[in-house]
Design the sequence.
């Protein structure tokens, strides 16, 4: 499977994918929209092709997305992995890669779509927080959920401490989901995710083989 990772930031999830021996050979490249993002150094160190498409150089979201789609076509991608990619993708882009994009989001979706998920979980007094991996549709953070891991919210938690604990689970969940995708144990059929031939009504935990 030919996979390309899109990221905008430090890239710790990208690193978790690089460090997975099953996933690594399938990674074709990293594409980043910020010239100074830490994920670029990680790609460099892993000797993985990497490119920057700076969104500020494009006059519209559509123009940026078109340039991005062209670059992805060059890599002949089968799958696109969003790993902290801080751009909303336009419907035109989505229609080109329908069912081929997955994302990781630091909340127990459908709770807390969008930003500041940990602050919102703490403000709501939630007892649990966590992370979700989902297929991407044109609804922001609203596509079919595939995998989820939870962490307890602790007394006197701060958004930073909670984020750190959730991130540790992100680094376990994302490679596990991508491995299943590569092995065709995970599939999206008519908008419904299947794992090992069973429709996923609820996200799976992906912790069977740890
Ligand atoms: C992660 O919390 C991920 O869930 C969210 O953005 C953050 C990226 O972190 N989509 P990193 O760049 O992978 O360290």
Sequence:
């Amino acid at each position: 499977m030919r996979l390309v990772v899109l990221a905008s930031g430090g890239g710790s999830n990208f690193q978790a994918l690089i460090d997975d021996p099953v996933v690594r050979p399938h990674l074709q490249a990293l594409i980043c929209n910020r010239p100074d993002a830490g994920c670029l150094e990680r790609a460099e160190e892993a000797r993985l092709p990497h490119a920057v498409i700076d969104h500020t150089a494009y006059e519209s979201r559509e123009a940026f997305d078109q340039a991005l789609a062209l670059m992805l076509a060059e890599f002949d991608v089968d799958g696109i992995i969003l790993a902290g990619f801080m751009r909303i993708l336009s419907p035109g882009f989505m229609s080109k890669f329908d069912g081929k994009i997955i994302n990781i989001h630091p909340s127990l979706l459908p709770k807390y779509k969008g930003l500041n998920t940990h602050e919102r979980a703490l403000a709501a007094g939630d007892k649990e927080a966590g992370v979700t991996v989902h297929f991407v549709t044109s609804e922001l953070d609203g596509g079919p959920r595939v995998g989820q891991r939870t962490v307890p919210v602790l007394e006197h938690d701060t958004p930073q401490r909670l984020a750190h604990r959730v991130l540790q689970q992100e680094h376990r969940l994302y490679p596990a989901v991508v491995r299943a995708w590569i092995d065709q144990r995970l599939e999206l059929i008519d908008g419904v995710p299947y794992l090992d031939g069973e429709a996923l009504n609820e996200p799976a935990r992906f912790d069977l083989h740890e």
Residues 159-182 form the longest helix (24 residues).
